[in-house]
Each structure stands twice: as structure tokens, then as C-alpha cells.
Amino acid sequence: MNAILIRDAEMFLKRWGATRKPNWMLWLRLIFLTPGFQFIFWLRMQRAASSVPFVGPVLRRILWYWTRIWFSSEVDTDARIGPGLYMPHPHGIIIGAGVRIGENVSILQRATLGRAGDNHVYPVIGNGVEIGAGAAVLGAISVGDGAKIGANSVVLKDVPAGAVAVGAPARLILRHAGKE
Amino acid sequence: MRNALVQDANMFLSRWSVSRKPRWILWGRLLFLTPGFQFVFWLRVQRSLAIVPVLGPALRRVIWYCTTIWFSCDVDPQVEIGPGLYMPHPLGIVIGGGVRIGENVSILQNVTLGRVATEHLDPTIGDDVEIGAGAVVLGAVHVGSGAKVGANSVVLKDVPAGAIAVGAPARVIIRAARSEAIVEDRDLASVERVIG
Q1: Crossing angle (nearest 10°) for helices B35-49 and A56-71
Q2: Does any CB of chain B come closer than 8 Å to the CB of residue A168?
Q3: Distance of alpha carbon B96 from alpha carbon B79, whole angstroms
Q4: Which of B166, B93, B53 lies closest to A110 in space, CA to CA?
Q5: Is the model's pLDDT at B20 over the cut of 70?
Q6: Which of A160, A155, A156 lies closest to A143, judged by CA?
Q7: Other residues' Cβ atoms within 10 Å of the Cβ of residue A34
Q8: Residue A171: closest CA among chain B residues belongs to which residue?
Q9: Cβ separation of A110 and B166 shorter than 8 Å?
Q10: Residue A153 sits at the chain B interface (C-beta within 8 Å)
Q11: Which pLDDT tens digit goes with each residue over B133-176?
């Protein structure tokens, strides 16, 4: 878990323009005065809590409840999230139970990742994906490595690697083709 | 209020794929560890306080304030909501005073139901309606029973029963027996992408 948290911290430091390794002062700022990092910290703690014998599941559920109330964001304890998660503004973010998220992914405020309708199939997010504010990614779709999802867009189909998805419902813009 | 709460609880249990009646352990989980059910519970409490003489309105206001701050949701105590309300993620939901909501309705996070700035006319929502994340329903519109409102859509016109409204401003898609007739044919291709 330590290694994962350091990867998460490095994502924040990179955005702050801090080039050096996290020293104690930056760690204090991250842990006590950075809601985004605090939220990710408690998500990682929930994962760690499940390995505690006997009380693990109950402890995890209690941590989840208070994290949910404090940050107004709901990330299901069964969602799998890779290291290097970046959530600068943890408010109104909803991530469903079966979601799989790769490494170095940015998720902004009010983003929803979840199922569409009653079938229990969830999206899979690749590495280095950026998800804009208010975006909804719904259903059994995959978002490829390095893709970007625009603010308030509603993504209901696969997004190839490196593409940009915008609009409701989302249109795809393939950046490598040189034109739309 | 009791009957309404049991129907609310059954909506949550059916989504959890629990088929049996709520036992004490499920009630415990609903009341203490399920923000969605807690929020619905406090809405029902606010509603029932209206009939308490003298202290009722003040107490209701205090509970409304605490509920609003705790869940980051602002639902006016005047809203009439049928039994079986399902709010899985009570975050950023705003519902104005004159809104009427039917039975077994699902309302997701960041939804707004209210009036258009100057007019005092609010939407009415039928039974079994599902309102997706971030959707906005404004003005004197009626959303018919069984209709669905897509994520992030902005509904400014009536939605017939069983139809789907998507986009901003929302286009209405009628779900007929086999083929789908597009009522407002503004962007056929994108509608087909949604329903295909």
C-alpha cells in the first residue's frame, strides 16, 4: 500500500510543479490540507482494511461511510483502482462496484463511472486516461490508454486509445488521424 | 410514513438482489451504513413532522438544514414524493418546492428538478421514472410513467410515458413495439448511437 500511496502522491506533486521527491513538508500538506489526496488515502485504507481478520469487512464499511459523508463522493469498495490516481477535487464522484481503473488516471469532480440500466456490467478504464468534470461513463465499455473524456460528456461506447470523447452522447475525435 | 419507508427499503433491497423481506440486519445496514436510504428516511421524517402542531414546522426546518448539509442535497420539504423512492447516491440532488413525484422513482446523483428562473411552475414526475446522473428537468413539464431521462440531459418539454429523453436540450425517443420513432428529428445519427 505504501508504494501505491507514493505513486498517488507523485501525481499530485507533478501537478504542483514540485520536481523533488516528497519531503516531510509536502507530505504534511498532502495529508492534512489536500482533500483530493486525503480522499485517495482513505480509499486505499478501505482496501487495506479488508485484509484485517474478522472485523475487516465491517471496518471497511464504516470507513467507506465516513469517507462518503466527508468528501461527498462515493467510490464502491469493490472498484479496482491502479496506482497513481489523481482526483484534484473529490466532490460528487461516483464509481460503481465493478469498475476497473488503470494507472495514472485523473478523475475530476462530479464524474460518474457506472452501469447503464439494470445489467451488472461496468466500464474498464485504461492507463493515463483523463476524465473531465461531470462526465458520465456508463455500461460495458472500455476506455483505451491515454484517452480523454470531455466535461459533461456521456460516454456509452468504447473509446479507443488516445482518442478524445466529447458531447452527450459522446462523439469520438481520433487525434492521430489529423482530422475528425 | 411507515408503509412508504417499507416500500423505499424494498427498492434498495431489490437493487441489492435481496429477494427476502428486510430482516433486522438489513434494516441496520440500511439505517446506519446506506447514505441513500438515510437520506430518503430523513425526507419522510420531514414530511411527517408537518402534521405536528406548534413545533412541527420549526423542527422540520432544523432537520431539513442538517440533512441538506450532511448529504449535500437540497430537497424542499414541500415536495410530494410517492412511496418507493430510490436514491442510490444522494449527492448534489436539488428538488424544488412545487415538484410532484410518483411511486417507485429512481433519482441519481447531481439531478435538478425545478422551475425555470421566473415562472412558478414545477415539473411533475410519473410512476417508475428513472432520472439519470446529472439530468436537469425544468419548468411545467410532465415526465410520463415509465420514462427514462438520460445522464446529463436537460429536459424542457414533456416526455411521454415509456419514452427516453437524452441530450441537452433533450430529444425524445419513443420506444415503440419494434422500431423507434424519433419525435424531434434533430440529430438522427446520434440518437441511433444511443439506442443502438
Answers
A1: 60
A2: yes
A3: 7
A4: B93
A5: no
A6: A160
A7: 19
A8: B190
A9: no
A10: yes
A11: 999 999 999 999 999 999 999 999 999 999 999 998 999 988 75
Shortest Cα distance from B177 to chain A (angstroms)? 19
Residue whose grid cell is 469520438: A172
CA-based nearest distance A24→chain B, Å: 33
C-alpha cell at A124: 474498464
The nearest alpha carbon in chain B to A59 belongs to B33
- Report CB contact under 8 Å: B110, A92: yes
- At A102-146, the pLDDT tens digits run 999 999 999 999 998 777 899 999 999 999 999 999 999 999 999
- Reported ipTM: the value is 0.82
Hey, are the CB atoms on A138 and B151 less than 8 Å from each other? yes
3-state secondary structure of B124: strand
Query: Does residue B132 sit at the A interface (CB-CB below 8 Å)?
Result: yes
Pairing between β-strand A136-138 and β-strand B136-138 as defined by DSSP bridges: unpaired
Mean pLDDT score of chain B:
86
User: Is B104 part of the contact surface with chain A (CB cutoff 8 Å)?
Assistant: no
Q: For residues A67 and A43, is the Cβ–Cβ distance under 8 A? A: yes
